[in-house]
Amino acid sequence: MYSDSVFLAQSDTTAGFLCKDFKKLNRIKGRNEKQSVIVTLSSLEKLKKIVRVPRLHRKRIRQSHKSTFIYRGKNALVPQSLGVRVVKDSYHSEFLDFFPYLYSTSANPHKKPFNLEFALKRAEVLVLDKRELSQKPASFVFRVGNSNLRRVR
Q1: How far apart are the first and last CA of the chain?
Q2: Beta bridge partners of 84
Q3: Half-sphere exposure of 41 toward its Cβ, with a 13 Å CA cutoff?
Q4: CA-only gyration radius of the chain, Å
Q5: Residue 64 backbone phi and psi in degrees, to 5
Q6: CB 68 within 8 A of CB 83
Q7: pLDDT in tens, 103-137
Q8: CA–CA separation, 47 vs 50, rounded Å?
């Protein structure tokens, strides 16, 4: 019923849009449809099905919080690099359990600050919990290589 809907939820980092179609999220934000969007997952088991994590970085990725990792090369979803975040926050993780994965982006217009009215108008389904909707710091972003891990943001 809700498989192709755009959800508005408070993620482990900031209020964001979530959807199975990243092009739909890019249209909502007013940016290039082909721009990459972060994939959010609820467990490390789901991560294993999408990308191959280099052995050298497995412990770091397993223990990370509020971090996004960019994996190079082919994967189960797209033919190029893919940014993936495994959510450890219990509220958001419980929501993500209902889906194999969801693309996620902040709930604001492209290159503009968070605006609650904008977010509410564009969301098809509102997901609320006790934290409410607010802008908070974005996740850290790391590029994963076979031998190195480099912080991008």
Answers
A1: 36
A2: 39, 69
A3: 21
A4: 15
A5: -75, 155
A6: yes
A7: 999 888 888 888 889 989 999 998 888 888 878 88
A8: 5
